[in-house]
Design goal:
Blueprint: E1 2-7, E2 19-20, H1 24-33, E3 38-39, E4 45-46, E5 55-58, E6 65-66, H2 72-82, H3 84-90, E7 92-96, H4 98-110, E8 118-124, E9 140-143, H5 145-152, E10 162-167, E11 172-174, E12 195-199, H6 205-217, E13 222-225, H7 235-241, E14 250-252, H8 255-265, E15 268-272, E16 284-286, H9 289-294, E17 300-304, H10 313-318, E18 320-323, H11 335-345
Parallel strand pairs: 1-3, 6-9, 8-9, 11-14, 12-13, 12-17, 13-14, 15-17, 15-18, 16-18
Antiparallel strand pairs: 1-5, 2-4, 7-10, 8-10
Pfam families: SpoU_methylase
GO biological process, one term: methylation
Protein name: tRNA/rRNA methyltransferase SpoU type domain-containing protein
Length: 352
């Protein structure tokens, strides 16, 4: 397989916005039409005052090993790991580690009946192809320890058997602005929208990845990311999710989009909130078996707030607040821990 790519000649910071002259949706549609043996995406990116076109980088078909960290393809892969905007513009992501790669491939093959969307697999030059991946019909590129270390982002690469360059799954939907309000929300969560986890400005990628993994484990139907959330395809989020970001339908949108979903499926909005708070007093229900049973048949959105500030004012205003009763003298739990409890208690009966 020949993997061709494009990236800006200057480094793109994930914290600074840039303008993509061709829309992301058109780029993804274009890349999907290209033969799988040659994936080439041409971008024109503005970074500050730089108006120069992006440089196209192609990995020739005869190249089966890379030893230098200065290789253009390595630089492209590094930007995919470091920059959310670059990642989504190219529709590609690095997945580090044989375990999450295997889990993604197994899910896509066994549950969806489709082949894995791996553009190429990077394996250490002296290592064997990891078990479970040797039978995949994909391009293998051998890389040196220095390249593996640089791309993995970890200090020790002994536990990193492989890195996969994969396509961002079609189960991820980015509702860019309010022009997407009229889109068919029935397509956001194809199987069902009975249980949807809504994350409100979750900025820690470890927490976000853990919550997505827990939602997958407790058979929730999908996750909805409100503004302020980190990228679910951030490398730390991917490690925490163990591949669940490729399995669980994820929608990135705003409150207007969420209101459309709420109205379409007549969903009840619940929000996790400490029983005691300095905010304006509002009735806070206690999470219990009885409470869970009372909402078992109702479609639910469970909203969890950010690590530092908790729920946004909008969430507190429109949602029924629910707290986890704690015998210990402590105000609150880590959001991923609290989320795991909520997701377990409120899971669908079919998943219990």
């Amino acid at each position: 397989m020949l993997c061709g790519c494009a990236f800006a000649s200057q480094s793109v910071s994930p914290r600074h916005p840039f303008e993509i002259k061709t829309s992301v949706s058109k780029l993804r549609a274009l890349s999907a039409q290209l033969p799988r043996t040659q994936i080439q995406i041409n971008l024109l990116i503005d970074v500050g005052s730089d108006k120069s076109p992006a440089t196209r980088v192609s990995l020739p078909s005869h190249v089966n090993s890379i030893t230098s960290t200065s290789n253009p393809f390595v630089k492209h892969c590094l930007k995919l790991r470091q920059s959310s905007s670059y990642r989504h513009a190219h529709g590609s992501v690095l997945v580090v580690g044989a375990i999450p790669i295997r889990e993604v491939c197994m899910f896509q093959t066994n549950k969806q009946g489709i082949t894995s969307e791996i553009e190429c697999l990077l394996v250490h030059e002296e290592a064997q192809i990891p078990q479970g991946l040797e039978s995949l019909s994909i391009r293998i590129v051998r890389v040196s320890s220095l390249v593996m270390k640089k791309l993995s982002g970890v200090q020790s690469t002994e536990s990193v058997e492989a890195i996969a360059l994969m396509r961002i799954p079609s189960s991820f939907i980015d509702l860019e602005d309010d022009k997407d309000i009229k889109t068919d929300c029935n397509k956001w969560f194809p199987s069902s929208a009975h249980r949807v986890l809504v994350l409100d400005s979750i900025q820690d990628p470890g927490n976000l990845g853990t919550l997505i993994r827990s939602a997958m484990a407790f058979n929730w139907d999908g996750a909805f990311l409100l503004p302020g959330c980190c990228d679910p395809f951030n490398d730390k989020a991917l490690r925490a999710s163990r591949g669940a970001s490729f399995q669980l339908p994820i929608v990135s949108g705003n409150w207007n989009h969420l209101k459309v979903l709420e109205h379409e499926f007549q969903m009840k909005l619940l929000a996790g909130h400490p029983a005691t708070s300095t905010q304006k007093p509002k009735l806070v229900s206690k999470l219990s078996v009885e409470f869970a049973q009372s909402v078992a048949e109702k479609p639910l959105c469970l909203i969890l707030g950010s690590e530092g500030n908790g729920l946004s004012e909008q969430s507190r205003k429109v949602c029924e607040l629910v707290s986890i009763p704690m015998a210990g003298d402590f105000e609150s739990l880590n959001v991923s821990v609290a989320g795991g409890i909520f997701l377990f208690m409120l899971q669908s009966r079919s998943g219990s």
